[in-house]
């Protein structure tokens, strides 16, 4: 095996000058395949009946009372109450980047770099960090069941919803001038290109070009401001499938599931890198607050 | 992940031989280390799926556009791994093909391992006109056989394209359904029939 590898490498070396700059050539196919049918894809902006129906429903729901508001209220109480083994509140101990206890505008300016943690963190990761470092909760406990299911909603989900609601109608402004943030953004850009797994999928397979759909589901192109906004707006969101409140962290995991990838660890660098890439691409877009998802 | 020894050998040798063309950027190198730390096995989706096979590594390092010479050799290598049904028949039953084309299950951490895996075809392609819920990641396949006929060469092309799309387009977005063991040869020939059989609704 080893010998074969060396031999193959030597052979490849011999041909390597040809590697230089040629453009890829089209592979041989039966000639008739040139007469390919014109794709009769629907125009980019066309929405199917189900999508329109859902949007009407969502508008009505929000008018009558967005279910996310319940979690926002719970999160506000948790934020202001002395809790955990250290019996301190997050309001008096947690800095989301704009000063201890400041929630107004914090969500749309994350992910950002936190010198005390030495890391770039998204909102959820930062809240979990504060719960561990300031309030004394055990990280393992917070990581054990980090997303809602059935009637269970993790505390950090309600807290994220509260913090996010306090950035409603404000523009995304991930601090890209910070070299730490820029670096994580660039790493995130590499993550979205990484093809692997049984189906060779990357994030970009579905989310790297305009006007694509899986079945009838429109796929935002997260490399553009408009597409990134579609991917970022509405999170955290109350999801009609399962009737649960879910965060953007959760959504990243579900993407990887469908990508046939393994599971990203909760509150990991990889998830922060993706959220940095997407949210920064949406910089300048107005955040509409916690939403309702299909 | 299943990868033929031959496949990874050729690709790895190419990477070793051409450091300038295939070297990782600092950010990509960081991303690879980070992902290795951050992914964990869940259900059948084992942590090692994050690692690239040789072909994925070359596509990832060249922005899905390897140089022509590498492309040809990799495509030939992928093609060499295509296995055909023992009886040589490449056209099966289009009705069975339609069922396989409809199913998108398989390989995720919420799928039961070992269940028959779907072809995921409608997720990305327009195929038979009756199904209006189709994706647009791939080209429309409506009237595929009507436009091209169903000669032996065409059957072989469609079969091997589904078995391993990378044997024609090395960094194609399309999965390698036969190569990774998602679809068996007899399932692939049902899909060939869906696209090429004159009786298939695709060609009406």
Automatic annotation (TrEMBL), chain A:
Pfam families the UniProt entry points to: SoxA-TsdA_cyt-c (PF21342)
Reaction(s) catalysed by this chain's protein: L-cysteinyl-[SoxY protein] + thiosulfate + 2 Fe(III)-[cytochrome c] = S-sulfosulfanyl-L-cysteinyl-[SoxY protein] + 2 Fe(II)-[cytochrome c] + 2 H(+); S-sulfanyl-L-cysteinyl-[SoxY protein] + thiosulfate + 2 Fe(III)-[cytochrome c] = S-(2-sulfodisulfanyl)-L-cysteinyl-[SoxY protein] + 2 Fe(II)-[cytochrome c] + 2 H(+)
Residues annotated as signal peptide: 1-20
Keyword annotations from UniProtKB, A to Z: Electron transport, Heme, Iron, Metal-binding, Periplasm, Signal, Transferase, Transport
GO cellular component, one term: cytochrome complex
InterPro entries, per database record: Cyt_c-like_dom, Cyt_c-like_dom_sf, SoxA
Domain Cytochrome c: start-end pairs: 74-171
Compartment(s) where it occurs, according to its Swiss-Prot or TrEMBL record: Periplasm
Keyword Transmembrane: no
E.C. designation(s): 2.8.5.2
Domain of life of the organism encoding this protein: Bacteria
GO molecular function, one term: metal ion binding
GO biological process: sulfur oxidation
Family, as annotated: Belongs to the SoxA family.
Oligomeric form and interacting partners: Heterodimer of SoxA and SoxX.
Name this protein carries in UniProt: L-cysteine S-thiosulfotransferase subunit SoxA
Species whose genome carries this gene: Sulfurisoma sediminicola
Record lineage: Bacteria, Pseudomonadati, Pseudomonadota, Betaproteobacteria, Nitrosomonadales
From TrEMBL, chain B:
Bilayer-crossing regions: none
Protein's UniProt keywords contain Calcium: no
Keyword annotations: Heme, Iron, Metal-binding, Signal
Name of the protein in its database record: Monoheme cytochrome SoxX (Sulfur oxidation)
NCBIfam families found in the cross-reference section: thiosulf_SoxX (TIGR04485)
InterPro entries listed in its UniProt record: Cyt_c-like_dom, Cyt_c-like_dom_sf, Thiosulf_SoxX, Thiosulf_SoxX_II
Signal peptide, first to last residue: 1-23
GO molecular function: electron transfer activity; heme binding; metal ion binding
Source organism: Sulfurisoma sediminicola
UniProt KW Heme keyword: yes
Domain Cytochrome c: 92-199
